[in-house]
Automatic annotation (TrEMBL):
Parts of the chain that traverse the membrane: none
This protein's UniProt keywords: Flavoprotein, FMN, Oxidoreductase
UniProt key word Iron-sulfur: no
Species assigned in the record: Lentzea xinjiangensis
Domain FMN hydroxy acid dehydrogenase: 1-353
Record protein name field: 4-hydroxymandelate oxidase
Length: 356
């Protein structure tokens, strides 16, 4: 009998044992020497929580609100491409698990299941949008997301071209014939992920394009991939509903600042004009608590979801989400937080004794 998973890294171990090595590298790898990939984890390790005592917390409430919607915990599933690489049901399995867990599921533009089919699961669906050189393709994706019932558009801002992911290059990684970008026209498909992305995505994305999108859609609009406070201030002024502080999981500019390190400056720049979420490096419920304690409204959970999917399909994703929520509840009890609002009152020591 397989022992119960006690942490998300247990799911990682199981996933690594069942997927091909080149698929594992595609999921786990970062760009360049993977300095930023490692820094994302280290940044969370360097955050120390100052717990409160005599708080009388027996049963903490993890429920929160993200972008105007009640959720079971301050987290959503991050957009991640080509999930059928890891399980035949791919994004369908992940979305169903997210629905059961009561958290949003973000469909990638490069999903291996169409946005319509994912939304049909009944999950609270967000749609992640890449900006295409052919604006008609972008406009069509926005319309399809709206028609499918997605609640939110998440525009990825940090991919003018794909970062050099050395593991994939060394492996000569290509998509198998039965895994495609289901949201894109047949003529736009390619077996080589980097070539596919670089051919289609427009590197000239600018603030005028964001204004065009804001005026075009009735959906809530999120910009993902913001690290500089000046960019955060401009995005907030452009009327976005939220910013995701993110370095694309360490898969774009290697040497970029860790997301958790960039969070405070972005929060200061935004000054409450829009929500601020965080992704890149979130691996546990304790990480969720740390991000919220530092001021984030919530987090996006990425690779651990894929580990669960590879390990056991929908049940695996559900188990990962349940584990992270349970870890959050445990951390709340041990730090004296009755609810998510109380987490925001926690003090943290960051890096070499710096205080928030």
């Amino acid at each position: 009998m397989t022992p119960a998973a006690l942490s998300t890294t247990d799911f990682a171990d199981r996933a690594k044992s069942v997927v091909p090595a080149e698929v594992w590298d595609f999921v786990e790898g970062g760009s360049g020497a993977e300095v930023t990939l490692a820094a994302n984890i280290e940044a969370f390790d360097l955050i120390r929580v100052v717990p409160r005592v005599f708080s009388g917390v027996a049963s903490p409430v993890t429920n929160a609100t993200l972008l105007g919607t009640d959720v079971s915990a301050p987290l959503a599933v991050a957009p991640m491409a080509y999930q059928r690489l890891l399980h035949p049901e791919g994004e369908l399995a992940s979305a169903r698990a997210a629905k059961s867990a009561g958290v949003p599921f973000t469909v990638s533009t490069f999903s291996s299941v169409s946005v319509e089919d994912v939304a049909a699961t009944g999950a609270l669906t967000w749609f992640q949008l890449y900006w295409f050189a052919d604006r008609a393709v972008t406009a069509d994706l926005v319309a399809r997301a709206e028609d499918a019932g997605c609640r939110t558009l998440v525009l990825t801002a940090d991919l003018p071209r794909m970062g050099k992911r050395l593991r994939d290059i060394r492996n000569g990684f290509t998509l198998p014939a039965d895994v495609t970008a289901a949201n894109l026209p047949e003529t736009g498909r390619s077996s080589v992920v980097a070539r596919h992305t670089d051919l289609l995505v427009d590197p000239a994305l600018c603030w005028d394009d964001l204004a065009w999108l804001r005026a075009r859609t009735r959906l809530r609009l999120v910009v993902k991939g913001v690290l500089d406070p000046a960019d955060a201030k401009t995005a907030a002024g452009a009327g976005v509903d939220a910013i995701v502080v993110s370095n694309h999981g360490g898969r774009q500019l290697d040497g970029a600042v860790a997301s958790a390190e960039a969070l405070q400056d972005v929060l200061d720049a935004v000054a409450g004009r829009c929500d601020v979420l965080l992704d890149s490096g979130v691996r546990s419920g304790l990480d969720v608590l740390k991000a919220v304690a530092l001021g984030a409204d919530g987090v996006l959970l990425g690779r651990p979801v894929l580990w669960g999917l590879a390990a056991d399909g929908q049940r695996g994703v559900a188990d990962v989400l349940a584990l992270v929520r349970d870890e959050l509840a445990d951390a709340m009890t041990l730090s004296g937080c009755r609810d998510v609002a109380a987490i925001r009152g926690l003090r943290c020591l960051v890096r070499s004794g710096g205080r928030r």
